[in-house]
User: Which sequence fits this backbone?
């Protein structure tokens, strides 16, 4: 039981965290540190570029997806192929899109427990049930790498005043 409180204390000591929500419910939360953190990154244009690289959808344009939407797209395609049955006769009604839409993903980055930047994208494009089958553990190293790289640069192109 002491190891659990030790792990909680370690997580609280780390300054940075990212959270992925679905309909304001936490799916994934990670605490981490950034070596050589540059405070200028919090007011930079590169921060916006970073959030787009991680969770950007660009208005449904699937040619330029971020890490998380691209991963969800791959999982959706795999799911569709695994459940594809060419011998199943479908009626016209079975081709209709599901009527339940509106699940919203939110990705947020915090520094010292304060939100720094966040973005949202909808689940209408993915076949996954977000409450059951969204598991992004495979892409967490890529997400952390992107955040660490962008927030520890020496200089930034544009700093927002």
Assistant:
């Amino acid at each position: 039981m002491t190891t659990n409180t030790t792990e909680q204390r370690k997580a609280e000591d780390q300054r940075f965290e990212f959270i992925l929500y679905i309909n304001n419910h936490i799916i994934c939360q990670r605490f981490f540190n950034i070596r050589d953190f540059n405070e200028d990154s919090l007011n930079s244009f590169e921060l916006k570029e970073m959030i787009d690289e991680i969770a950007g959808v660009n208005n449904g344009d699937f040619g330029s997806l971020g890490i998380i939407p691209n991963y969800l797209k791959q999982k959706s395609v795999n799911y569709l192929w695994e459940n594809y049955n060419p011998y199943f006769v479908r009626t016209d009604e079975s081709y209709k899109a599901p009527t339940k839409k509106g699940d919203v993903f939110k990705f947020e980055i915090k520094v010292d427990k304060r939100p720094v930047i966040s973005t949202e994208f909808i689940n209408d494009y993915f076949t996954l049930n977000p409450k059951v089958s969204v598991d992004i553990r495979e892409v967490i190293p890529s997400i952390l790498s992107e955040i660490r790289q962008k927030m520890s640069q020496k200089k930034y192109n544009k700093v927002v005043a």
